[in-house]
Amino acid sequence: MDTKRSGGREAALAALPALLLPWYDKNKRDLPWRQDTDPYRVWVSEIMLQQTRVEAAKEHYVRFLRALPTVEDLAACPEDKLLKLWEGLGYYSRARNLQKAAKIVAAEGFPSTAEGWRKLSGIGDYTAGAIASIAFGQPTPAVDGNVIRVLSRLLGDDRPPEALKSSLFAELAPAYPQARCGDFTQSLMELGATVCTPASPLCLTCPLFELCRTRSDALPLPRRKQERKRSELTVLLFVRGGEAALCRRQSGVLRGMYGFFCIEQAMDAAGVQAFLRGAGMRSFALGERRAHRHVFTHLEWEMTAYVVLSEEDAAALQNSSAAADDAAAANQTAAAASAAGEAAAAKQSAPAHTDFAALQYFPVERIEREISLPSAFRWCLPLLRRAAGAARN
Ligand code: SF4
Fold this sequence. Notes:
By secondary structure, the protein is α+β, with helices and mostly antiparallel strands. It has helices at 8-14, 16-27, 39-49, 54-67, 71-76, 79-86, 93-108, 114-118, 125-136, 145-155, 161-172, 181-194, 269-278, 311-318, 321-336, 339-347, 364-370, 375-378, 381-392, and strands at 229-240, 243-248, 258-259, 261-263, 285-295, 299-309, 360-363. It folds into two domains: 8-205, Hypothetical protein, domain 2 (Endonuclease III, domain 1); 229-392, Nucleoside Triphosphate Pyrophosphohydrolase, CATH 3.90.79.
């Protein structure tokens, strides 16, 4: 399969524009970021697409640009508003980096070369190549997983994707057609997204069929899957006067984002009660409990959330029949828990996150509407809605 020394490799890459561009003109999807080649718009779309599927990014892209139509608007946007606009896309560091870079661009102007773009926060080789070719018509390849897949199959190159990536950056540049650099970049991406897909590529309809050495999904060779790290978290959903408590995460995953109060260990109801008493809380009752698994790319959180009600809210909740069963069940579990469990929980060293003063209370409707809450925590909102609603009625 290896054509690395076959001499046909250069010719195969040189033949790409003539095969791909007519196919692209006919088959490209109508995507909102393909309306023009304004560098700000191209840049925002490329950052959004880094870890988000095209379908999921479309709506966010339109909403984002309606709210922040220029790089100056983005540079001046308050962080909370920015994160709310980014909600649903995940990987919030992308939004922060985008704004950090926007402040520089708003002051100094847009870079016009891939090198200039690479100096900005959140922009690597792929994104720099994509922006420079699409927005500035430069022959700068943008080699991501899609393009590596297409070209490894086309060339029959079975080297690991990391090795292939750096060689393709250099090899692809001379194949770029002067007049249509941006379209060439996009045609490769488009083929990878719609025809040369990871599984079951549509080889019979592919414009590269005659040239292709593989004509199947045999390449790239599968990588050994990395094991995800697993962590257990107990999430405490404090409810007081019909409002729910958020706190900013101080470290680790989702640092700087709003979340709920977390203890980085699994606890049963008895353990939670012992923990709260140990932390100085005297007057509370446990409400509804729910377990949930949240999967990040390299990490899994096994989460168990408990609603923690103030005494007054607990009394109000007792009148709400649906929630009362849950509350009673949780408290029964607590009562039935073994003394050994309590003792063990009490002995556990207090987690770093015991600063109740850092809790900020908000109406649940406001959390849902205005505050950017990562999806790792959004599943808790129905519990809060029920508890806060019952407490208010
Ligand atoms: S022929 Fe098949 S494997 Fe080759 S580039 Fe086209 S879709 Fe991919």
